[in-house]
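Re: the request from the purification team.
They wanted to know what the chain is likely to look like in 3D before they choose a buffer screen. I agreed to run a prediction and write the result into the notebook, where they can find it.
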Amino acid sequence: MKIYHHINEFKPLDFAIATTGTFDGVHVGHRTILKKLIETAKKNNGESVLFTFNPHPRMVLQPDLDLNLINSLEEKAELLKECGLDHLIIHPFTKEFSRTSSLEFVRNILVKNIGVKKLVIGYDHHFGRNREGSFEHLKEFGPVYGFDVEEIPAQDIDHIKVSSTKLDALF
């Protein structure tokens, strides 16, 4: 797995299968997304890409919040490598970056800088300024910018939807 510490270090791919998010904890829900991402990349002779952030967005946007991360950045990278991911982009999350609109994020990050042909995301994924972007937005942007989007449904374990927020509460 190749690791990049800024989107500018990454060269767009011919056929990128990508996902994006914090992936804090790399829990079972994240692993389901990654499994589909990697399978899709292999099936299409593409490369799997995860665009994530450091520090965690809540640490920047809510600095007074006592946020206990499940894994350190190094542990997260190792877990992602074990999953078989091709490329990990760890982009600096700043207040300025948080003002990126969902359209700018899709157009400039996903399409222009990564070369996304297919996006695999979780059912509750939101992105862009004030988390304005959603799966519905991605379905609208896809045909315009030449990519497909696949939503991974909630993964239930003992009838509890898996999420990092719920896992954080256990620690």
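For the purification team: The domain at 2-168 is CATH 3.40.50.620 (Rossmann fold).
Please add any questions underneath this entry.
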